Amino acid sequence: MKITLGAVSKPYSALKMKTGDWGTHWPKVDEELCTGCGTCEMFCPDMCIEVVKVGEEEVNGKIKEIKKAKVNYDYCKGCGLCAEVCPTNAIKMELKDIYKV
Amino acid sequence: MVRKVVRGFYAVAYAVKLCRPSVICAYPITPQTEIVENLAAMYANGELENCQYITAESEFGAASILVGASATGARTFTATCSQGLILMSEVLWNAAGMRLPIVMVIANRSLSAPLSIWNDHQDSMAMRDACIIQVYVENNQEAHDMIPQAYKIAENKEVMLPFMVCMDGYKLTHAYEPVDLLEQGMVDSFLPPYNPPIKLTTKDPLTFGCYAPPHCYMEFRVVMQRAMMRAKKVMEEVFKEWAELTGRNWGGLIATDYMDDAETAVVAMGSVVGLVREVVEEMRKDGKKVGLVKIRSFRPFPTEELRKVMKDVENIVVFERAVSFGHEGPVAIDLKSALFGHCNAKVYSFAVGLGGRDIPRDLIRKCINNAIEGKVDEGFHFEGVKEFEEVII
Question: What pTM, to 2 d.p., does this model score?
Fold first, then answer.
């Protein structure tokens, strides 16, 4: 970690300056429990959790997409809404390493 | 050097002029006003070259303007006191954290309420923890001399912190004293132009004092404390260089008289030191082993220096010009914490002259004698207080 004189920093847009380190906790998705229902995606205020296709499976002779929640840790501020609303308790909020003393 | 009889205001303003400031910004407040009035007159007469004199709408505005100016690499100056300093305080904490070496003169004045425009040290003491260097001066020559030294210390790359030159309001600011006024060549040879490692320009925008979440905030505070501690060494060096250049040796972080064999040390800061020194000299003539410790730098606090001179004393008498309400006088608080485990002396602290109350010579002598003779308890006392009754309307 670099500590600048006078906490001086170059200005950046959010493209370069990831805001994800603002939060102390981040959501961790247990893929065993995640059903890919998309409730978390609907509730996320920062559009930082998205249900994406991770594979395919055959059910009753039909090909079905397997979907799981994926977190964008670059911008997730760690509010914990996703963990709160998850119907299968697949999301747990974990303390980030940089906040561990 | 030319010796002239001038007021404290002029002694300070003239020294500021010689330091070639780029931006001066202030808001009037008694008893500081004439410092910046003198500078405004110099500016209007064209004596301040390459300088902007900005009048602000408040002390908060003045300090904010200087934060911006200092970030661009400008050498800056302001002066204030009392309520003005308190109004500035929000900005000054930022200036310290942004590591901007703004130099200011505090014409020490008491704080409201009740409203008082007279002198004590309550205003600058309220800024004690802000990571701003605080030096208290004894007379107008020391105030005059301290300005170029303040810039040199504050702008040192190892330090980079705001600097308060604290001079007693009225007692120094309004007083006429003979002052050896510095010459431009002398100051130029002593004080190089300010050239900070980072400069804010329109072409290269920067964020000063940016957001620091809990995972990195503490490290910035560690760095500030280190800068304050490094300042001690820088100050000693600059004070020494000044003594060699001008022949006027004001001492280091502290200055002492008669301390070699002293059994009782008398501690004071600011203009009252002159009176205390005279009383100590008189008591020496009476055969009493009394010595004087003048604290020049209150922040950084001269911990090691005090431990060294106080090693063998039996009594310590502190004259306070402020109160930390609910505890005791701020100088004694710090002194005791510095000496804890290093000195077994009894510490007596006396708050005197609050809100401009006169400090008679006899009062100083009485306080020291009472401490030596054990006629008062250790700890904190108000002295020079009249008999009164607490009533409701």
Answer: 0.93
